TrEMBL record:
The protein's name in its UniProt record: Aldo/keto reductase
Top-level taxon of the source organism: Bacteria
Taxonomic placement: Bacteria, Pseudomonadati, Pseudomonadota, Betaproteobacteria, Burkholderiales
Start and end residues of each NADP-dependent oxidoreductase domain: 15-344
Matching InterPro entries: AKR_Detox_Biosynth (IPR050523), NAD(P)_OxRdtase_dom_sf (IPR036812), NADP_OxRdtase_dom (IPR023210)
Oxidoreductase is among the record's keywords: yes
Length: 353
């Protein structure tokens, strides 16, 4: 895989990124280290994590994923220089009172403290890409469709957030910054504020992008293309719905071996498990099989080959899953198949948005 440049930065990453939110919940430390070893062996140089991981988020596993990655670095001196490391500061509380005591604002000091804590857990001196996990303001995210101005609260301004990040960059703790679960307005506001005040420029946006969740295509793609901001696509397999494992209508949620949606009740309440999202996933999965592909191959190749996507974040629970995702890099989708994909979207839109 040829490396690509993130935004206007000097970061050169593989177009496939290893997501790690399963580490510390579904994947224990020893297994996680084997997956990390295998990813590096297969040529992946990009790792993404977050302070709130593992997922599903809970107090007992807060910071566990970063700790597992830090132990891997400590166990393998020299590997840190071979990896582009991305992590994220959690946004305002989403019923997580164990993160900054459930505060509804992320203050400039919170940025400093959270970064320092991530650096300690990750056993490193610098984070290559430090991202805001979700907007520090009232904004539709994680499956919310509409913006509701009545829900606005008092939050630290975009300028104050950028000034805090600037402090981290100048201190040598962060190289570049990014956003996640962001809107077109948010991206442009960060860019304009940075340009006006000479503050760090956003390099990336990490948003969902999958066959059943293509809100990026509705305007954010133009913003990112024209402003040279790179898309990091997460959940390309829609939490497993685009692997075919939930294709049987009324799948038994008591079968935890099926995956996260089946294993965790909280996941079954999320956008990926909405009835209409599962219906759409089954159509795409059937289309894949009709063209001699596995559902995973179709879903991954769709992201891998999209001009919108700089790097696709894959989350796995085993080395076998990792290899399956990486092997899909060679899959090509014909123009006719892409037209059929768009025909399904025209009818069903983005049910997991």
């Amino acid at each position: 895989m040829q490396k690509i440049q993130l935004g206007r930065t000097d970061l050169q990453v593989t177009p496939i990124c290893l997501g790690t939110m399963t580490f510390g919940e579904q994947v224990d430390m020893a297994s996680a280290h084997r997956i990390l070893d295998r990813a590096l062996e297969r040529g992946v140089n990009f790792i993404d994590t977050a302070e709130m991981y593992a997922v599903p988020a809970k107090a007992e596993t807060y910071g566990a994923t970063e700790t597992i990655i830090g132990e891997w670095f400590a166990k393998n001196p020299g590997l840190r220089d071979r990896v582009v490391l991305a992590t994220k500061i959690a946004g305002p509380s989403r019923n997580m009172d164990w993160v900054r005591a459930g505060a509804v604002d992320v203050t400039p000091q919170d940025f400093i403290d959270a970064c320092d804590a991530s650096l300690r857990r990750l056993r490193t001196d610098v984070i290559d890409l430090y991202q805001i996990h979700w907007p520090n303001r009232n904004a539709p995210a994680f499956g919310a469709v509409y913006f509701d101005p009545a829900k606005d609260t008092v939050n630290s301004s975009i300028e104050s957030q950028l000034r805090a990040l600037d402090t981290l960059v100048k201190a040598g703790k962060v190289r570049h910054i990014g956003l996640s679960n962001e809107t077109p307005w948010g991206v442009m506001s960060f860019l304009h504020t940075a340009e006006r005040l000479g503050l760090p420029r956003v390099a990336t946006v990490q948003n969902p992008y999958a066959l059943t969740s293509r809100a990026v295509d509705n305007g954010l793609d133009e913003v990112m293309a024209r402003e040279q901001v790179s898309l990091l696509a997460y959940s390309p397999l829609a939490f497993g719905a685009l692997t075919g494992k939930y294709d049987e209508p009324g799948f038994d949620p008591a079968q935890p071996t099926l995956g996260r949606i089946a294993k965790f009740e909280s996941m079954r309440k999320q956008r990926w498990a909405r009835p209409d999202a599962l219906v759409a996933a089954r159509e795409y999965n059937a289309l894949a099989r009709a063209h001699g592909l596995t559902p995973s191959q179709l879903a991954l190749a769709f992201c891998y080959r999209s001009w919108r996507v700089a790097s696709t974040i894959i989350g796995v629970t085993s080395e076998a899953q990792l290899d399956e995702c990486l092997d899909a890099w060679t899959v090509q989708l014909s123009p006719e198949l892409l037209e059929q994909i768009d025909a399904i979207r025209w009818r069903l839109r983005d049910p997991a948005q």
